[in-house]
Design a protein that fits this description.
The chain has 199 residues and is of the alpha+beta class. The protein has 5 helices and 5 strands. The protein has 2 domains: 74 residues, Beta Barrel (OB fold (Dihydrolipoamide Acetyltransferase, E2P)), CATH 2.40.50.140; 120 residues. Strands 3-2-1-4-5 form a 5-stranded antiparallel sheet. The mean pLDDT is 93. Belongs to the RecO family.
Length: 199
């Protein structure tokens, strides 16, 4: 395997003393897990933050081997991780994507939608600007994996929150049923924070 492509870091967990295992979402190869040497070091720690866009060079000698990745930062989401609402949205969407998608299956529409959603979270002046995109992303994810219906037309924050509430049961039952970690806890925090701006 040899892949050079833009990717979204959707998860990173420590491995050994200094490395991380990063899960990367690429447009053409889907989710790829890869070993990043020095990922917990001073230079790479800011790069392997979930939500960041990177240029990834991924290599493996065989399909059964965990690939090695070299990552170069393209766009950082770090500045928004100090803001509670954007940080919650980035954490939830990345955790959901990392937990729900199987490895090595291409989902180009999800890749492009997640890039657009992360851009909206980081550029909109408030959650009113990106909550509809978040609701649409969840519906798209359900649909791409065979559990959803048509893309909804979302007029504003109120409708987006209704759709988010309706999607929660489907996500818990179909997409996250086999996960060990409580990924939905990140969604609960996000939904509570979104509820505060609704009033």
């Amino acid at each position: 395997m040899h892949l050079s492509a833009p990717a979204i870091v959707i998860a990173a967990r420590p491995h050994g003393e200094t490395a991380v295992i990063a899960r990367l979402l690429t447009e053409e190869s889907g989710v790829v897990a890869a070993y990043v040497a020095g990922g917990r070091g001073r230079q790479l720690r800011p790069v392997v933050i979930p939500g960041n866009l990177v240029e990834a060079e991924i290599r493996a000698k065989s399909d059964s081997q965990l690939p090695f990745a070299r990552l170069e930062l393209s766009q950082s989401r770090g500045p928004w991780l100090t803001e509670p609402l954007p940080a919650s949205a980035i954490a939830w969407t990345c955790a959901l994507t990392a937990s729900a998608l199987p490895e090595r299956n291409a989902y180009p529409s999800l890749y492009n939608a997640l890039v657009a959603l992360l851009d909206a979270i980081c550029s909109a002046p408030s959650a009113r600007g990106w909550a509809p995109a978040l609701a649409s992303y969840e519906v798209l994810l359900l649909r791409e994996l065979g559990y959803g219906g048509q893309r909804p037309e979302i007029a504003g924050l109120g409708e987006a929150l209704e759709i988010l509430d309706r999607s929660e049961g489907l996500i818990a039952r179909y997409l996250l049923a086999d996960t060990r970690a409580d990924v939905l806890a990140a969604r609960t925090v996000l939904r509570q924070r979104l509820g505060r701006i609704e009033t």
